[in-house]
Amino acid sequence: MTTAPGLTPEVQLGALLQTKLFAPRVTREAVDRPRLTAVLGDRLGSGSWPPVLLVSAPAGFGKSTLLAQALLGGSGPGRASVAWLSLDSGDSDPSTFWAYVLAALRTALPAVGGSAQVLLQSPGSAPITTVLTTLLNELASSDKEVVLVLDDYHVIGAPEVHAAMTFLIEHLPPQLHLVLATRSDPPLPLARLRARGQLAEVRAADLRFTEAETAAYFDAMGLRLSAGEVATLEGRTEGWAAALQLAALSLRGRDDTAGFIEGFAGDDRHVVDYLVEEVVHRQPEHVRDFLLRTSILARLSGSLTDAVAGRSDGRALLEALDRDNLFLVPLDDQRRWYRYHHLFADMLQARLLDERPDEVRDLHRRASAWHERDGDITAAIEHALAAGDGERAAGLVELTIRAMGKDRREAQLRRWMEALPDEVFTARPVLANGFVGALMSTGEVRGVEPRLQIAEHWLDAIRAAPAGTVPRGLVVADLADLERLPGWVRIHRAGLSLIGGDVAATMEHGRAAIDVLGRDDNLGYAAATALLGIASWRQGDLESAATAYAASMRRFEAEGWVADLLGCAITLADLQWTLGRLREAERTYRDALDLAGRQPGGPLRGSPDMHVGLAEIAIEKNDLATAREHLETGHELGDHLGMPRHPHRWRIAEAHLHEAEGDLSGALALLDEAERVYDGDFSPDVRPVAAMRARVWVKQGRSDQALAWAAQRGLALTDEPDYLHEYEHVTLARALLGAGDRSATQLLERLLTAAETGDRYGSALEILVLLALSRQGAGDIGAAVAALSRALELGAPEGYARTFTAEGPGMTRLLTAAAKRGVTSSYAAWLLSAVGAPPLQPGRQDSLVDPLSDREVEVLRLLASELSGPEIARHLVVSLNTVRTHTKNIYAKLGVGSRREAVRRADELGLLGPARG
Amino acid sequence: MTETHTYEIRIQGHLAQRWSAWFDGMEITAADDGSTVIRGQVVDQAALHGLIQKVRDLGLPLLSVTNTHTGATS
After folding, report:
1. Does the distance separating the beta carbons of A270 and B60 come in below 8 Å?
2. pLDDT digits (tens, 9 = 90+) for A199-213
3. What are the two backbone dihedrals, phi and then psi, of residue A178, each rounded to the nearest 5 degrees?
């Protein structure tokens, strides 16, 4: 959240390559393999196609061909349509991987995946599970089935992708069938799937050509071989499809069939290597040259091969190779793009490296330049890196920094940065700072400091240089990036200081960032103010922290980063509550929830967290039914839609609800669970679970145990009160009170002063309630009621309830006393009704759902007088309109329609109190 | 100072000398029993796994992986 270096992107990252979604065509020469295709085809047709099919075998074993035959050939996939995705190593980046998966699915089912796609492309941090849940819901309501083929799954190395795939597999709807073709078994829960009968497998042994299939293959290739010759070839190749295909190519047009087979069989060299040598050797010189030079390319077009091989007949050559079956795979129907069969390409590249090592770099450099012109920056960077051209790669990577940040592809950006040679950073402050952002947003602190120093060094040099000039030796790809640099360097400094625990430095750098950030740099402001918010919070300056968080949220909203906004909302509401503004906290949660609900693709990540917050507030307001509803909704939305802390916060709220319902041992069990799933971050843990547990012990009459916890925690009566330990100190006071220890009073008085000094009226409210109980225990009822009166004044406008009503019979007596003295009497009466205390006076005050505010009671008393409306207004020194508003509210709360009825009803409820009595 | 390890990867079948460049200059020796040994230093485990992946991508049966020497170089 704090380090995303994304503004409006200027560099467009490469669009999705349609060639990767192109399902391979079944060639004429492909041998029908009914023993395999029939099994797959039948299962598909009969609806018993397994949820997951794993085709796992080495390179060149005919995995893709078999799948193309089974899925796209004659019998076809029955009622299911087929989505094909050929993966490459760039797809290890999770955002890229899922963008391609969605695009592939949409080729088969255009109606599906739209919302998921919007979510995936929406700025900010929409986690992949949210995207997948949306996708799965869309698939589950589709009346069509789809088979998703992920070819070459072995290139995926990112654990995040495997984790998300596991999630997908575990929630697979019957409409989606997954096919993974791979050279090695993927790290997915295969054993579990096997045990459940949800996995079908085709492995190397199944894919090996039998003697009959070998014979049929050579027959189809127009080669007349004896049974003995077929057996020899089958034996030597062990049924390896690629080897058989190469053997057929070698035999074609050769007179001495027997001699070739004999030589081949008598050689113990790597079978494919041997055959490639045979095939390549038989090509004319210019074709050999073309094959070697273009072997470095992941995909081939006429224009690209011309640029790389230094020719002008690339297209014609590709078409000729395709006609001759030279391991060229078409990637579209227009014969524009091809690729070599992977195994063949590897064999060619090994030759290139061996025979022309000096050429390789130059070939990659040319490929990089072509891709840059073509607009595929990713491929341009990969080739520049392969060329060992650090300068070129550095310049390209530098240009993608902001676009990659906006796409949340910091992991890929970091891999590129790490592949760059160290020295290219020295002259490039924008690149160095971008590396810092990529590291910090992927949770890495190592390596940050030296790069940050490079950026700072150049910022000093820029300041020292004459205005409008760039210091000598500085390299930058886009001058506009230099203007943004000072702000982001400060933001990264602030983040680094925070991680290092230096709050003062965080404040200093955060403020400096805001001074120099561009006016329209929303993400910069959002990051800087959020850092300032955390720093203020840790310093106990909650008012400033709340202001900072609110500012951060506005900037995130302006940028459309709703998930990040929701993360801030949790903190803001928490701060508002501690500041004693329960209503504001509730509004913060509600507004955030509304905003999340309005996002395309349904409820957004963070929605469950908002429900948990609203549940906690409902508990405080003693509305346990509403609290229960919110917790259930939060649970139904699921942990995967929650922020990292959701599982923890949900259990805490559930524990509070159990406690409110009187189930104290249930509450303790939930607190234990909450502690196990605690996921800490930069925000201070101001309400540790251990302290919550101690509070429940006090309620259970186990104050000794709570005191033992406090002693072990090192909490003492004489501690200097500070915000970070406030909750624990109040817990200690509760334990002392529970144990009948009078020293609680003194501690509470000091805590009260500290809370009021820090404007923490929410804390002050609780402390005052405890102080009242403590003074009552000492027999000083007057002082007790005085403390309670102050608490009631703080609580009345905000609707606090359980802070009072959860305190047992002592508090009931005090509330009765306070109500009798006329202090915020309607509020006190409402609280008493909540604990089921006998009414103060005969009447039905318990029927008043929404208590009158003090001002409303004042107006009500004047309504009971002979004064007219305008006279009341003059008396209160307010406008007539204000009086009318109050009157309307009073009527609504009392459920009446006239002044006379209101006065009668108020009298019944005892609301007119001492003034009339 | 980094620790380097010398590894021997034995595969089934004979691989020509020219594959040395493909395997980042490692030594390639064909043995009499029809297997081939790819031998050389790797800087860390990630590099070793990269090497094994290259073997996998050639479709060659892997027979053994042995750490023959661990040394420190500065």
Report:
1. yes
2. 889 999 999 999 999
3. -110, 135
**Three-state SS across A697-722?**
HHHCCCHHHHHHHHHHCCCCCCCCCC
Give the pLDDT band (50/70/90) at residue A588.
Answer: very high
3-state secondary structure of A238: coil
Q: How confident is the model at residue A753 (pLDDT cuts 50, 70, 90)?
A: very high
Best residue in A277, A354, A418 for a mutation probing chain B (most B CBs within 10 Å): A354
For residue A184, the chain B residues in CB contact (below 8 A) are 56
Gap between the terminal Cα atoms of chain A? 60
A370 shares contact with chain B (CB less than 8 Å): no
- CB-based contact A350 B60, cutoff 8 Å: no
CB under 8 A, 24+ apart: contacts of A184-188: A184/A56, A184/A154, A184/B56, A185/A54, A185/A56, A186/A54, A186/A153, A186/A154, A186/A156, A186/A162, A187/A159, A187/A162, A188/A162
Residue A593 structure tokens: 């929830």
Chain B residues within 8 A of A350 when measuring between CB atoms: 18-19, 21-22
C-beta of residue A903 within 8 angstroms of C-beta of residue A915: no
CA separation for the pair A57, A205 (Å, rounded)? 8
| Cross-chain Cβ contact A354/B22 below 8 Å | yes
CA angle A865, A869, A873 (to 5 degrees): 100
A117 contacts A53 by C-beta, under 8 angstroms: no
Picking from A100, A75, A122, A115, the residue whose alpha carbon sits closest to that of residue A21 is: A100
Which residue of B32, B36, B58 to mutate against A (max A Cβ within 10 Å)? B58
Question: Model-level pTM greater than 0.90?
Answer: no
**Which residue, A624, A635, A593, A626, is CA-closest to A610?**
A593
B49 CB neighbours in chain A (<8 A) are none
Mean pLDDT of chain A: 87
Per-residue b or e along A566-583, where b marks 16 or more CB atoms closer than 10 Å to that residue's CB? bbbbbbbbbbbbbbbbbe
- Using CB atoms, pick whichever of A60, A354, A357 lies closest to residue B59: A60
User: How far is the C-alpha of A731 from the C-alpha of A737, rounded, in Å?
Assistant: 10
Strand partners, B48: none
Mark yes or no for CB contact A273/B57 under 8 Å: no
Q: How far apart are CA A782 and CA A777, in angstroms?
A: 12
Q: CA of B18: which chain A residue's CA is closest? A: A354
Taking an 8 Å cut-off on Cβ atoms, the answer to whether A58 and B56 are in contact is yes
Distance CA A212, CA A467 (A): 81
Euclidean distance between CA atoms A90 and A372, whole angstroms: 17
Q: Smallest Cα–Cα separation from A379: which of A398, A390, A365?
A: A365
pLDDT in tens, B9-20: 999 888 888 899
A–B interface: beta-carbon pairs under 8 A: 56
pLDDT in tens, A140-189: 888 888 899 999 999 998 888 999 999 999 999 988 999 999 999 999 99
pLDDT tens track for A620-640: 999 999 999 999 999 888 777
